[in-house]
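Usage

Read records sequentially. Each one opens with the input sequence:
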Amino acid sequence: MIIKILDILRMLIVSAVFFFGYRIGYANGYDPIAQLHFMIPLIIVAIAGISGFEGVMFADKSAAAKGFEVGSNYQRQSSIALLSYAVIAVITWFTGWGIKAELTIFFAFIFFFFFSGINHAVDAVKRKNYRWQNINRPFITLLLITGMIYPVVMALKML
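and closes with the structure output:
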């Protein structure tokens, strides 16, 4: 049950971040840097932070929910890596290192999730593991990338 709650929480937070992020971006003309400054750390914390927390605190339940082996050291390493994205996103935001640093952590995060989505899709097809996480991960990752393309491209044009 806790795994489903965390899954729903991730989706709700990211949806709210997109809603408010686009409102912030278009508040006075269009400011993609303000939009991304708001969105990047919150998206990374919501997805990577909650996923990392889930993997560390509820490793066995999380693995079972995804149809993966329970007790894997790789799962623990992946969870720690996810937590590191979230911590660095927060540090970058609080220290005010700017949009280049924020985009750097976002690109590292999205690179991981893009290939994680491919991994989940392959697992779904190859092992017929049609669990919710395997089916939704590729699509949710593509939705996330699609929603971030415009502000990222516009911010890069301003640099």
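Summary fields computed downstream for this record:
- DSSP finds six helices and no strands in the chain.
- The first helix runs from residue 2 to 25.
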